[in-house]
Write a structure and sequence with these properties.
Blueprint lengths: L20 H16 L3 H10 L9 H11 L5 H12 L2 H11 L21 H13 L8 H6 L3 H10 L15 H7 L5 H16 L17 H6 L12 H10 L7 H8 L6 H12 L4 H4 L14 H11 L3 H9 L15 H8 L2 H9 L9 H11 L2 H10 L7 H9 L3 H9 L14 H8 L2 H9 L15 H7 L3 H8 L5 H7 L2 H10 L7 E3 L2 E2 L8 H13 L14 H7 L3 H11 L2
Antiparallel strand pairs: 1-2
Keywords: ANK repeat, Repeat
Protein name: Ankyrin repeat protein
Pfam families: Ank_2 (PF12796)
């Protein structure tokens, strides 16, 4: 399209009451068709919104221009507006309640833990946007008022009906105090009102220890405030003050789930100090050293503090290990997961600083079998011992453990020693998870490079999850590793998830039918888009240009566009839907 002087910027068009997103999509297609046919007026209209755009526009660019024409910054913003218009008030309220809190993988509908949407700031942003557009939501009931952090609204509702403080929402079974503790919204009112609302609820009789449900009693308000966990959930912005308020009003400071969650994060003792000190004020530190609750190993753990010591050793947290030992943990204890003495776990993992701490606190140097000594030699970088034991016991070179230790420590030099001694670059565990899979998990690029140079199979599939090293890297968020492996891989599904457009194009030129091939039954490539919107659009565009079928339905009866939209990939979904109509 030749450049045309843009006309003056017009006032935004007003969306008619009967406008629909499908109608707007059709308008964008007609506009694109007019420009493709040489319509100068259509071209000038486009350039009003994209001055200087010289290349032939694509449909998504025309959609973007149409959004700007209506006063929206992006097509996605316009689509959100249309979706919002189509929702009932009840649907908006449910969406606000759903998106406004950390849910730790628990589906609010079924109230069961599983593969639910990950917690993150994007969820709270959705809830905040709806509250801003529809302030009446905050006045719809106690739970919505809590989410909006409307102090006056909460006070008014409780004055009228004090029993609301105990109300368990029909939507997810949560109490108002729980919702306040787990809420994560980008609202100024959070900093201003959260603690005042918490005090108001507690004054009215809210139970500071009431959990989500009888199935998840340990997910208390204190756990929500502290945050942390397997998803790295954010703490409350006023976590310390909120925690003290809850404890002062009767919450049990021995918050087992919070202790577990924080054990997975940084090597930091802040919450250990705070919760222990509060337990000490009550004379209840014996709960830390007594029988462990379910969140900290249950009956199989010697005690809560013993469980936490095992986690500190496994995660190479010397500060936490020192703290736990100083507060009653046994340096001679057993790790909950491996059932090995923690000192052995430290030595086999190469955690020398923790091993020294344990020995200083009375751990007994373990008698290692020669096979364990071989792995410990990798951890210690003791090449002479490696050579001696490998010569005496060649079978040690057929175990994944020593290579996994070198990988976890990102020691390509030690991995090279093992390979030189005769270890296969495809050494694997009992589920055929190979060394390259382990390197992908750890982001150990130099080890991966070495393994590939020494002949490792790049696209081997493990027997447990059916994944290649590339798909493992993508799943674990190791983006640099995924980019490295993509340059060597021919795993088409994995390349799609990695967003490796150039590599995908090369393979499609070589074999165009890959665009519709099902590497997994019922899952052609259009169902394997990356999580990042821009990359997802680029991959979808490439696949469609090679004939990928946008109408295919997977075993859940979802089209590629429906599957993409469920993942929040709205621009990619729009692109795929546009292809259905040609």
């Amino acid at each position: 399209m030749s450049p045309v002087s843009p006309s003056r910027i017009l006032s935004p068009r007003t969306l008619s009451p009967g406008a629909t997103i499908d109608g707007l999509r059709r308008e964008a297609k007609r506009w694109l068709k007019a420009m493709t046919g040489g319509d100068a007026q259509a071209a000038r209209r486009f350039l009003t919104h994209f001055p200087g755009h010289a290349a032939p526009p694509k449909l998504r660019e025309v959609q973007h221009a149409l959004a700007r024409e209506h006063g929206f910054p992006t097509w996605a913003a316009l689509r959100q507006e249309m979706e919002d218009r189509a929702r009932t008030t009840a649907e908006r309220i449910r969406l606000v309640l759903e998106k406004s809190v950390n849910r730790y993988g628990t589906d609010p509908g079924t109230r069961k833990w599983g593969d639910y949407e990950r917690d993150g700031p994007g969820r709270g942003a959705v809830a905040a946007r709806l509250l801003a557009r529809h302030p009446e939501i905050a006045r719809s009931g106690i739970h919505a008022a809590i989410v909006a952090h409307d102090l006056d609204g909460v006070r008014h509702l409780l004055d009228k009906e004090p029993g609301l403080v105990h109300d368990r929402s029909d939507f997810d079974g949560w109490t108002p105090l729980l919702r306040l503790a787990y809420a994560r919204l980008p609202l100024a009112a959070v900093e201003r009102n959260a603690l005042a609302i918490a005090a108001l609820l507690l004054d009215a009789g809210a139970d500071p220890d009431a959990g989500w449900s009888s199935e998840a009693p340990e997910f208390t308000p204190l756990v929500g405030v502290i945050g942390g966990g397997e998803g790295g959930q954010a703490p409350h912005p006023q976590a310390e003050a909120f925690a003290h308020l809850l404890i002062d009003r009767g919450a049990n400071p021995f918050a087992a789930q919070a202790l577990y969650n924080t054990s997975l994060g940084a090597d930091d003792t802040f919450w250990l100090d705070l919760l222990w000190d509060e337990s000490a004020k009550r004379g209840e530190t014996s709960t830390w050293t007594g029988p462990a609750p379910n969140a900290l190993g249950g009956a199989r753990a010697a005690s809560a503090i013993a469980y936490l010591l095992g986690n500190a050793v496994s995660n190479n947290h010397p500060r936490r290990a020192e703290w736990l030992l100083a507060h009653g943990a046994d340096a001679r204890g057993i790790d909950f997961y491996s059932r090995q003495p923690v000192i052995k776990l430290a030595l086999l993992g190469g955690h020398q600083a923790i091993a020294e701490v344990l020995l200083r606190h009375g751990a007994i140097p373990p008698a290692l079998t020669e096979e364990e000594a071989f792995t410990a030699a990798v951890a210690a970088g003791d090449v002479a011992t490696l050579r001696r034991l490998a010569q005496a016991h060649p079978a040690f070179l057929r175990r994944i453990g020593p290579m996994a230790t070198a990988i976890r420590r990102h020691r390509a030099d030690l991995a090279e020693v093992l390979l030189d001694l005769g270890m296969s670059p495809d050494v694997a565990d009992d589920h055929d998870c190979r060394a390259l899979h382990f390197a992908a998990h750890a982001g150990a690029i130099e080890v991966a490079r070495l393994l590939i140079q020494r002949g490792a199979e790049v696209d081997a599939f493990d027997g447990r999850y059916g994944g290649s090293p590339l798909t493992h890297a993508v799943y674990h968020g190791e983006t640099e590793m995924a980019a490295f492996l993509a340059g060597h891989s021919r795993n088409f599904r994995g390349l799609c998830f990695a967003g490796a457009v150039d590599r995908l194009r090369a393979l499609l030129i070589e074999e165009p039918n890959r665009a519709n091939r099902q590497d997994r039954p019922g899952e052609p490539a259009l169902f394997c888009l990356p999580d990042e919107e821009d990359k997802a659009v680029a991959v979808a565009e490439l696949l469609l240009s090679f004939g990928a079928d946008p109408t295919f339905r997977n075993p859940l009866d979802h089209t590629p566009a429906e599957a993409a939209r469920r993942r929040g990939l709205d621009e990619a979904a729009d692109l795929i839907e546009a292809a259905v109509d040609g």
